[in-house]
Amino acid sequence: MALYTHHLPAWKRTEVEEIKRHFEEYPVVGLVDMYGIPATQLQQIRENLRGVAYIKMARKTLTRRALDEIGGEVAGMSAHISGQSALIFTSENPFKLYKLLEQTKTKMAAKPGETAPEDIIVAKGPTSFKPGPIVGELQQAGIPAMIEAGKVKIKDTKTVVKRGEVINAKMADVLAKLSIKPMDVGLILKAAYQNGTVFAPETLAIDETVFLGQITLAAQQAFNLSVNAAYPTAQTTGAILAKAVREARSLGIEAGVYEKDIIDAIIGKAYRSSLALKELVE
Amino acid sequence: MEYIYAALLLHNAGKDINEENVKAVLSAAGTAADDARVKALVAALDGVDIEDAISKAAAAPVAVAAAPA
Amino acid sequence: MEYIYAALLLHNAGKDINEENVKAVLSAAGTAADDARVKALVAALDGVDIEDAISKAAAAPVAVAAAPA
Amino acid sequence: MEYIYAALLLHNAGKDINEENVKAVLSAAGTAADDARVKALVAALDGVDIEDAISKAAAAPVAVAAAPA
Amino acid sequence: MEYIYAALLLHNAGKDINEENVKAVLSAAGTAADDARVKALVAALDGVDIEDAISKAAAAPVAVAAAPA
Amino acid sequence: MEYIYAALLLHNAGKDINEENVKAVLSAAGTAADDARVKALVAALDGVDIEDAISKAAAAPVAVAAAPA
Amino acid sequence: MEYIYAALLLHNAGKDINEENVKAVLSAAGTAADDARVKALVAALDGVDIEDAISKAAAAPVAVAAAPA
To answer: Residues in domain Large ribosomal subunit protein uL10-like insertion (chain A) (predicted)?
Structure first.
């Protein structure tokens, strides 16, 4: 705190106060990095989040000052300020906020020097290019290009940049020409605060498929329990009846209780046994 | 499953599956019928097409075993 | 199938599957028990491991049912 | 299951599946035939198309039993 | 199925599946618990090995076996 | 198939599958037994674990799944 | 799994799966609800087709529920 002067210019004071006020108005606050988002994209993201979340951009120093003045756990968020910070205010819970921000991410062309967020793969097949210098450019970038039927064609599918590798200028240029957009652009959540707790993004990244898998599992367990314990519910009465019928049929067939309903199956069982034995004999 | 067996027995015998009948069958088999379970059974079977359930059990695969590798 | 249900009911209730018991269950269900069928049932189940025979139903595989269109 | 094999044997030989014939086959096999089971078998098979039941059994896929781990 | 889920929840939480607990859970879920059904549930699950019952295939006969890849 | 039926009948009845027995069963069923085939059958089954061979068939589905429309 | 059971209970009861309801159900079951896990559950299930996930269980060929890790 000692770093700060007591007297901020009035407009800065207003900014800090506004941030502090939003902290009181919204239950959930996220700290995001907007680095590299073009203005048009940012406009789109704001549009998509309208009514759900409010984005507040401010200078880092002012953001930090506001966080410090609120103090407590909130002050700890300062450590996550990086790049081009902004605060995002919402009533949704932090996990939902993370999900929302993931959904607003879009793909963009790579700029030279950027790091590949995933393996960049060029698929084989025809391109829209007519024969020309492009073939050489592709080949120089390590992409197997050839000319076929008057068109430039990629011979084989190839991973041209591995995840985590830097995309050089030549590659960036070629990828752009091929309309390959490997970069995820969007608001990157660095931390989220709710009710005394600061959540790290790793905590917030939940895998929905895991939850869905658990739901399916739980539904199976409930179904099994209902049927196996013979506790009928609207969804399982038919299955319970069928199980009892199967048990009775099975007992009858196994033990050779000659009843009309199962005599077919008994004949079938005897016949199949005979077939199995016949195979051995002949 | 004894409650279910009793219900199927009554159904097969062409009798109503009501509390009284279910209890009579269970007690003949020497089982003390639990009132609540009898009620629950009768309620659950109300409106259920038992023939349909039976024919599915008879026609359908006895059980499903599919563990694809 | 009534006879088999009666047998399962008795088995579940931990009772002997003998002629007398089977008849008692059937008559409670309002079915006139046929002497020969009762005898046949009891004879068929004599020495049979009922739990095992039942469980074959659960374990039996499916004729891989065609996917419905 | 010996009773059913006796029935299938008679069927194959083109003989009537009646009590007398079933008993004759069983006794030739050295088995004391249980009267009630023979009656039950004959009654159950009455009106049944054995050829049909056999052809269905033959068509049944060869087991795909998969023991779930 | 609510009653079954309530039972599963209590089981997982290591609590007794008794009428009081089942009702408490159901009412917390905003469901008016039916007395008879609660009693039936508790009676049905009495003595049941729940771990076993939830993992044992109840083999829905309706189910269509997925074609193994 | 009649030779096989006869063999299984004897097996189920707990009798030896020898020429004499097979012939007795076949002739009781009204089938003229062919000497060479009886010998071949008996020889082929010598040392065969019939239960094992049968159990493979028993594992086959009890009923063929009805083809869904 | 108790969080999932709570969610399905609410779903079956026709109630909203929100933090308040999930916590109420869990606490009625005697489980101390972890704030972050409740939040994660609610967020994860938001916009998800639960019926679809459930129907997968009903259609699942093998009802053998693997023990959750």
So the answer is: 110-180
**Are A142 and A81 contacting, i.e. CB atoms less than 8 angstroms apart?**
no
B62 closest CA partner among A260, C61, A270: C61
> Residue C40 corresponds to which amino acid?
A
Phi, psi of A7 (to 5 degrees): -110, 100
Domain annotation for chain A: domains and CATH numbers: 10-105+186-206 (3.30.70.1730), 120-181 (3.90.105.20), 211-281 (no CATH)
In 10 A of CB A43, how many CB atoms? 11
Run of H or E residues at B51? helix B50-59
State the count of interchain CB pairs (< 8 A) between A and B: 56
Nearest C-alpha in F relative to B65: F61
Q: Which residues of E touch C65 (CB under 8 A)?
A: 64-65
What distance in Å separates the CA atoms of residue E3 and residue F3, rounded to the nearest whole number? Answer: 57
Contact between chains at D50 and A258 (C-beta distance less than 8 A): no
Distance, in Å, from the CA atom of A89 to the CA atom of F28, rounded to the nearest integer, reads 93
Domains assigned to chain C: 2-59 (1.10.10.1410)
pLDDT range class, residue E64, cuts 50, 70, 90:
very low
Closest CA to A92 of G17, G41, G21, G39: G39
Contact present, B and A (at least 3 Cβ pairs less than 8 Å): yes
Look up residue E12 and give its two tokens. 């997982």
* CA pair distance A133, B17, nearest whole angstrom: 85
- CB count in 10 Å sphere of residue F41: 23
| Residues A20-68: tens digit of each pLDDT | 999 999 999 999 998 888 888 888 888 889 999 999 998 889 999 999 9
C-alpha–C-alpha distance, residues A64 and A71, integer Å:
10
**Residue C55 falls in which region: left (phi positive, over 0), alpha (psi -120 to 50) or beta:** alpha
Report the run of H or E that residue D6 belongs to, with start and end.
helix D2-12
Q: Which bin fits A71, alpha (ψ -120 to 50), beta or left (φ > 0)?
A: left
Poorest-pLDDT segment among B7-16, E60-69, G16-25: E60-69
Interface of C with F in 4-63 (CB under 8 A): 56-57, 60-63
Question: Quick check: B56 and E60 CB within 8 A?
Answer: no
Total CB pairs under 8 A between chain E and G: 92
Q: Are A10 and A2 in contact (CB under 8 A)?
A: no
- Model ipTM value: 0.83
